[in-house]
Each structure stands twice: as C-alpha cells, then as structure tokens.
Amino acid sequence: MDSRQDKIDNLNKHKALSELGGGQKRIDKQHANKKLTARERINYLLDEGSFEEIGALVTHRTTEFGMQDQIYYGDGVITGYGTINGRLVYTYAQDFTVFGGSLSETHAEKICKIMDMAVKVGVPIIGLNDSGGARIQEGVRSLGGYADIFYRNVQASGVIPQISAVMGPCAGGAVYSPAMTDFTIMVENTSYMFVTGPNVVKTVTNEEVTSEELGGAETHATKSGVAHKTSENDIACLEDVKQLLSYLPQNNTETANKLDFKLEDEIRDVLSDIVPESSTKPYDMRAVITGIIDEDSFYEIHKNYAESIIVGLARLGGRSIGIIANQPMAYAGVLGVNSSRKAARFTRTCDCFNIPLLVLVDVPGFLPGTDQEWNGIIIHGAKLLYALSEATVPRVTVITRKAYGGAYDVMNSKHSGADYNYAWPGAEIAVMGAKGASEIIFRKEIAEAESPEEKLAEKEAEYAETFANPYKAAQRGFIDEIILPKNTRRKLLKTFAMLEDKKVEMPKRKHGNIPL
To answer: What is the C-alpha R_g of the chain?
Structure first.
C-alpha cells in the first residue's frame, strides 16, 4: 500500500503533466510563433495567484485511430475561475500545444461546465480561443460539443458579459461561439476566423486567397465587422480584455462600477470651436466626444468598420456610458447598411448591461444608391430604430449640427423614447437640406424666375432661416433645451445623474421581433 508521501508524489506528478500541456517542444514552437501558451495567457489575464483550475486531470475518451496512446491531461483546454482587479470571472484558454487546441467531447464538457457556473454565480466569462477546430478523430461527438457550447452562449446572452479573445486559428464551427458573445477581440497577424478555409474556397470558387486575407484580424475589423477590436499581440489583447471588462457590470442585474470622481468646474470651452460655421465642412466627432467625457476614458468599438458612425464605451463623472455618434469625417456621417447595424448591435449590448446611452447627432440622412437599397438599408436602418426604441437604459441625445429626414427619427429622437434631447444653437433639424427642399417646394417659382439661380439662392436662404435651426423643434418640445457647446459636459453630468434610477416596465411578451 502506498505511503502518504507516495500519494502526494503521485498527485504532484499528475499536476506537473497537466501543466506541461503538449510538451516543451510544442511550447517552444508556440513561443517561436510569437504566441503565449494557454497557461501563460490565463496567468497574465487574472490577478496574481487568483486562478483556481477546474478539470485539470480530464482526458479524452477516444480509442479510434490510435488515440488511446495519446493522452494529455486537461485535453487541450484550461478552465477555471479567478479575479481581474478583484472582480470574479470564469475563463477558459484553449491549448494549441495539445492536438492543436482541437475541440473534443471532453474539451467541450469542460467549457460548458464553467459557462454553467458563470451563469449561476452571475459573473462574466472570458474565452481565449486558439484552436484548429473540431477534433476529426471524434466525428459527431466533437460537433455535438460545439453545439452544447453554442446553446449556452445563447442562454447566457444578456445575462452575463461574454468576451471572446481570438488568439490563434478559429475555423469552421469554432467561429460561431465568438460570434454569439458580446465582444470579440482578435490578435493581429496570428489569429484568423472563417467558416471555410482557403483550400475549400479554392476548390469551390477557384479563388486564391490567404488565411490572413480571408479571415485575419484586419479583414474582420474593416470588412465584416466580426472583430470589435484588434490588438497588436497577445499581451495587448489581454490588456484590452481587462480594460473592456472595467466598463461592464458583473451581470444584467447590476451596474458597472462607478469610479471616484470629484465634480469641479465642468465648462469645456474647447467644444465651442469644433463645429465649423459652414454646414458642409467636416469635423472630427471624436473631438466632441473627448471634450465631453472623463479624460482618456474612451474605449472605441469597431473603430475601422462602418466609419461614418462611432460607437464605444466611456466614463462621464466616473459612470460607465455607451456613446453612439455620427462621424462627419466619413461620408458626411450618413447612416448606411453597416453603420446602422453596428450602432444597433452596440445599443442592444449596452441595454443588456444597464449602460446608459449618449447619442451625438450630425446626420444628413441615409446613404442613397442601388447598393444600399439592394442590400437592405430599409431593414438595417430599422434595426437601429428598433434597438433604440426598445432600450430602457437612460438615453440622452445632443444634436451638434444636422438632423435631417428619417435619420433624425432614428438617431434617438424624442419620438423614439429618448429621455432628454439637447441641441446646440447651430443645429439644423428638417426633412432635408435647405437647397434640396427649396428645389422641391419652389420648383415652379424658380423655373419662372428671370434668374433661376438667384431665385433658388433666395428661397434656400428663406428655408434655412425657417428650419435650419433648433427653435421649431424646441417650440414643439422635441428638443428639451438648446445649450451652448461649452456647457454640454456639465449638462450631461447632471442629466445622467438625474436618470440614474430610471425604471421602465415593458409590456409582457416573450420577446420582440427585431427586423433581422
């Protein structure tokens, strides 16, 4: 019979084998590819000494194809819980040194176990993805494991924050779990995501494309919108996860931590000179955002995707808020298919987790053209309108310049249930611009004039004087207050504080039917 020390030595041997993953040679290869190992990633992400591993000695159950001779403790994924800046989280990290991080039946069971626990406890779950896909030696059992994870992603959606870091390959069925989480961050040059790889693409469509071109971080950050953010390397990615988490609550019944904040003189003169006098001259809406929020607190989402709209998280008086803002520097800030979808998704994410919304408006309308119409601008624009109308968090709007046509309605207008609507003195709120409106309203008068050009200019000035200002809307109560730009931050600090305990009772229903 083994002595007590023999039993301790045996346990330590098993633990050491588990910590070694696929072996030193494969660990060295991971480092050579400028990637951290799964265990190094978890240790960097979590507070020092806080990680408690679950399932370290789990092994696969496959005996086909000689798999009974290839047993690795942990089976290619490290799972457990720990803290980030003192906050409890559950996390898993796929281990590429074990069967290329491929997902087996037991690998999936480990992930499902901690997903279930995260929901029960009510804390965020963070997935560090680095996997070659389903383990082909297991056939349908590995596919079933993916489906088990997907189901839990859906059940946890809107209940706890789910963050995915794609830090290596993520192909086939593996891509759907990150796609269903709240945020996806990809590492530049070492990660990729696609449903079918370059070889299959070449076989089916005869297209020559690399993994990076097909599904690299830059592709998904600029073309598809799958990646919410990209990071330069593994360390930067893990830092991004930590920073992102700081804006989010533990679950949907809580609010994000409020940072200590001392209210001082909150007049910001810099805001007075950002919007040009010419209504057609562009300016950077990020300068307006910077002038309103707490210093260095903007965490932009989808920065390089659908650039005519800006979305991101920030702090105002220490409170976490979500910001949606038209960007006049890109396509004059119009709403298009992708920008509408981008803003709608962000709206729903903030609403899930009790993050108030600030909407900054300078929008000339929807992007015209056959490409937009044929790709469903009606449906996609309706998504944003639906998402904002459905949101019950505090919602405040500031119109900095243009608010034209249906885009005025969509961008968190009073009519869609916004709580408080401000406008700057130079705001233009109308069905369309003065020139276009005059050409329609006064078409006959202009055509019959001795000098049509002069008559058009005269009528354009007349229309602009009537509608290219915020006063008609204010008289109707559609604008609650017209404020000087420099007073915006002070007004918003008071408004969001006033709305902090806002409660909305929604009609009883299973769920609404958002236009997808």
So the answer is: 27
197 annotated active-site: no
Check if the beta carbon of residue 502 is closer than 8 Å to that of residue 289. Answer: no
Whether residue 71 is found in the same domain as residue 161: yes
Which amino acid, one-letter code, is at 300? E
Q: Are residues 228 and 325 in the same domain?
A: no
Q: Are residues 205 and 115 in the same domain?
A: yes
Q: How far apart are CA 202 and CA 205, in angstroms?
A: 6
Q: Element (H or E) spanning 485, and its range? A: none
Asked whether residue 37 is domain-assigned, the answer is yes
My answer on whether 122 and 162 are in the same domain is yes
Report how far residue 224's alpha carbon sits from residue 231's, in angstroms, rounded to the nearest whole number: 17
How many CB atoms are closer than 10 A to CB 117?
16
> Has residue 63 got a pLDDT over 80?
no
How many beta carbons lie within 10 A of that of residue 406, not counting itself? Answer: 14
Residue 199 lies in a domain: yes
Please state the domain count of the chain: 3
At 255, list the tokens.
């609010």
* Residues 333, 218 within the same domain: no
Mean pLDDT of 49-53: 96
Residue 279 in this model has a pLDDT that exceeds 80: yes
pTM value? 0.93
Same domain for 449 and 335: no
Please pick, among 158, 197, 225, 406, the residue that the annotation labels catalytic: 406
Catalytic residue among 74, 133, 172, 312: 172
Are residues 427 and 454 both part of a single domain? no
Distances (CA, A) of 289 to 271, 364, 502: 9, 19, 24
Indicate the SS3 state at residue 325. Answer: strand
- Asked if residue 209 and residue 88 are part of one domain, the reply reads yes
How many other C-beta atoms lie within 10 A of the C-beta of residue 315?
21
Q: Which domain holds residue 366?
A: 269-431+468-498
Active site residue 139: no
Q: Which residues are within 8 A (CB) of 369 and not within 5 positions of it... i.e. 6 or more apart?
A: none
Mean pLDDT computed over 233-240? 98
Grouping H, G, I as helix, E, B as strand and the rest as coil, residue 276 is coil
**From 173, 365, 405, 426, active-site residue:** 173
Is position 406 annotated as part of the catalytic site? yes
Residue 180 lies in a domain: yes
In a domain, 261, yes or no: no
∠ CA 413-314-297 to the nearest 5 degrees?
A: 145
List the helix and strand counts (H, then E) for the chain. 20, 17
CB neighbourhood size of 236 (10 A):
14
Identify the band that residue 65 occupies on the pLDDT scale cut at 50, 70 and 90.
low
Is residue 407 annotated as a catalytic residue, yes or no?
yes
CA distances from 456 to 428, 437, 444, 448, 449 (A): 19, 10, 11, 11, 9
Q: Give the side-chain half-sphere CA count within 13 A for 107.
A: 33
Q: How far is CA 111 from the centre of its chain?
A: 23
